[in-house]
Amino acid sequence: MLAAARHSAILDAVHAEGIVKVADLAQRLGVSTVTIRRDIDALSDSGLLTRVHGGVMAPSEGGSHEPGFALKSTQNLEAKEAIAREAASLVAEDMAVGITAGSTTWVLAKALAAGPRITVLTNSVRAMEAFDASPSGSTVLLTGGQRTPSDALVGPLATASVRRLHLDVLFLGVHGMDERAGFTTPNLLEAETNQAFAATARRVVVVADHSKWGVQGIGSICGFDDVDALVTDGAMPAHALGILTERIPTVRVAP
């Protein structure tokens, strides 16, 4: 296979899967890992890819770049649905449940809307709408606040609303998770509002697919050590799972 064809195949794989291991690419393309690493170096030098430990991912946006909800809601949908099913199993009737904004938490909200009766506090208009036709009669409390491109309500009004209440469990959506930076967002006001959410909850559960690994936003929400659980998908790289399981008490990989 010519180098140009390999480069195209590598880019297609990264676009479809988010993060791809060097060994997997070598096996798929029938070449050595040395050849794949040489291809990755060329693509990385051109700004088309970002190297990570043992693999490669799409180039990272700037730390303050905030993609819109419409785009995020179409990405890695199968993984997000698997995560949502796994996370929904943690909820029982009459719980007070927090749901922050995001595309994964929106999919989770749709799953919870079909489940037991609960009380939901959210800063996501999309999550609130998911409960409109809920057969369980769940109660949904929506914070006020300034709306971001990712459809989060943030700022002083949202933060003040959250701080007055107490949650049994919070499902926290994040923009990125990084070994040094922890869980982050590209929006500083959203970071503050999410911190308030986490402070009110007995249990904090992050819901994030594999594409969030190695991504870093400008605003820090919390460290790995500050959450009780992470629900992710099976495409998360093994080395990342090793880091996460060392620092987070419970890591659940959705089947």
Reconstruct the topology from this structure.
Layout: H1 3-17, E1 19-21, H2 22-29, H3 33-45, E2 50-52, E3 55-57, H4 69-72, H5 77-88, E4 96-99, H6 103-113, E5 119-122, H7 125-130, E6 139-142, E7 146-147, E8 153-154, H8 156-163, E9 167-173, E10 176-178, E11 182-185, H9 188-200, E12 201-207, E13 219-222, E14 229-233, H10 238-247, E15 250-254
Parallel strand pairs: 4-5, 4-9, 5-6, 9-12, 12-14, 14-15
Antiparallel strand pairs: 1-3, 2-3, 7-8, 10-11, 11-13
Helix pairs in contact: 1-3, 2-3, 5-6, 8-9
Task: Provide structural commentary.
With 255 residues, the chain is of the alpha/beta class. The chain has helices at 3-17, 22-29, 33-45, 69-72, 77-88, 103-113, 125-130, 156-163, 188-200, 238-247, and strands at residues 19-21, 50-52, 55-57, 96-99, 119-122, 139-142, 146-147, 153-154, 167-173, 176-178, 182-185, 201-207, 219-222, 229-233, 250-254. A seven-stranded parallel beta sheet has the order 6-5-4-9-12-14-15. It has a three-stranded antiparallel beta sheet with strand order 1-3-2. Helix 1 packs across helix 3 (33-45) and helix 8 (156-163) packs parallel to helix 9 (188-200). The mean pLDDT is 89.
